Structure to design on (224 residues):
């Protein structure tokens, strides 16, 4: 099931991890894809929201991690491009393996047998690139190629694992799950400075906010 956050925005609560469906001015956009076993739930969510699989136009990924790219296999053979931050793109395509020298990279390497490289076109995104109404913000730290997406027209920020929601507040992505926590802190501050205001904020984990999303993020940035 999906929960509507606004007329054109739906939240997938995939038990522990979030994905988002957006009707971006007619371009149906799925953001992140959960774990490998979430494929059916992702497709069921499309019909909950009133769409069919063939209506899907594109997939955006916030970063390469098993719990955000795992469900991609459900879209194999379907002609939709996958957009991802350029430093994580070679991990999605399987051209590169995660680095063993980093604790998070070593973990990614350990679970990589559960991730299949998709057949779809993979489009690397740089900071400032736009896809539909979304602008890409490179926010490294959790992973080197982590990005957030902001749509001003939808008043929506898709935050991936830059932050997580816990007890009604944003928290930085924790050390254990991040490549570099100093970079996470820097990315939160820079993103809070650079991004336009948005109300709806969907983190990769925890409950989305429907109001004052960018303000809540600025509040966190002020404490770091
Ligand atoms: Zn995650």
């Amino acid at each position: 099931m999906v929960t509507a956050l606004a007329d054109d925005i739906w939240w997938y609560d995939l038990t522990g991890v979030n994905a988002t469906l957006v009707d971006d001015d007619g371009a149906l956009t799925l953001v992140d894809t959960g774990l490998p076993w979430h494929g059916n739930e992702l497709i069921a969510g499309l019909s909950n929201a009133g769409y069919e699989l063939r209506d899907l136009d594109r997939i955006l990924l916030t970063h390469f991690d098993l719990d955000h790219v795992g469900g991609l296999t459900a879209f194999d053979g379907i002609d939709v491009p996958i957009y991802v931050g350029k430093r994580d793109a070679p991990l999605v395509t399987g051209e590169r393996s995660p680095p063993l020298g980093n604790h998070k990279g070593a973990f990614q390497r350990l679970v990589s047998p559960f991730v299949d490289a998709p057949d779809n076109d993979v489009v690397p995104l740089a900071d400032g690139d736009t896809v539909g109404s979304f602008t890409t913000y490179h926010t490294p730290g959790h992973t080197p190629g982590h990005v957030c997406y902001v749509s001003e027209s939808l008043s929506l920020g898709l935050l991936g694992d830059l932050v997580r929601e816990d007890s009604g507040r944003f928290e930085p992505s924790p050390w254990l799950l991040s490549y570099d926590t100093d970079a996470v802190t820097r990315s939160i501050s820079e993103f809070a400075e650079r991004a336009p205001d948005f109300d709806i904020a969907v983190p990769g984990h925890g409950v989305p906010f429907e109001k004052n999303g960018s303000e809540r993020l600025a509040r966190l940035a002020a404490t770091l």
In short: The first helix runs from residue 39 to 48.
